[in-house]
Design brief:
Length: 290
Amino acid sequence: MVSSSHEAMHRIFQEYPELFSGVSEVLGVPFPPPISVQILPTDLTEARPLERRVDTLLLFDTQEEGSFLLAVEAQGKKDLSKPASWAYYLSYLYAKYQQPPMLLVICQDRSTAEWAARPVHIGPRQWASLTLRPLVAGPHNMPVIRTTVEARKDLALTTLAAITHADNPDVAAILKAVSSALRETPEELSHPLAELIAQGLGKRPAAHLWRHLMAVDVSFYKSPMSEEIRDEGRAQGRAEDILIVLEQRGIDVPGEARDRITGCGDPELLRQWLARAVTAPSAEEIFVEK
């Protein structure tokens, strides 16, 4: 199953294609800003039953360099089969579109990024017919943006940098800078970028920090994630109400019961427990269906 991190790392280029100019400059291989960008179908399947799909595929048209294809792949771990797939993608794209293709790989850990960046020579030792040279962005070369001023300069680049640095020890400062910058940004731009960060962080510890930053002022951020945050806030408040009612009635709340109450995220179930807490003879009785 494709993870949310995987989706965010390449889908951001669909939402903000001009991001590639910033990324390429950071990586030391600058490309001029495009005068137009077209999102192309990602299905590279041939007529025979062999399905191959690139994560994101874009056609860039520039005034200085002409047109070229950009295939973006999100890579979560080393996969020895990938170089062959990547070489196939580029060869197929060149044959289909008659445009020079290039591959950009986005990673969230240094070892995977360094592995992906190694040139792969395809052919006999004496003469490589093809050489695969992906351009790789990851925690080893993406900027660590810790200030709001720096984050504001290029919000799409800032978002991708934050995603690639999900495991950085200083991720709290990175996310704080992004959050502050987004609060000063129009909703039509800030909301999708905030959602991409939430997806990109996946189930990492940094995801909880990001949710907390968004919960500080959820009125700034309205999305499926913000609704989850509101639901969590309601559940937390209702759990506290249950404990207060039981304690005010002099009912002892053992550790196991307390953990069950505070660990419940179902607002409706908590509402039922709260109603029972008013008359239950013991904390355990609130869990008993009548």
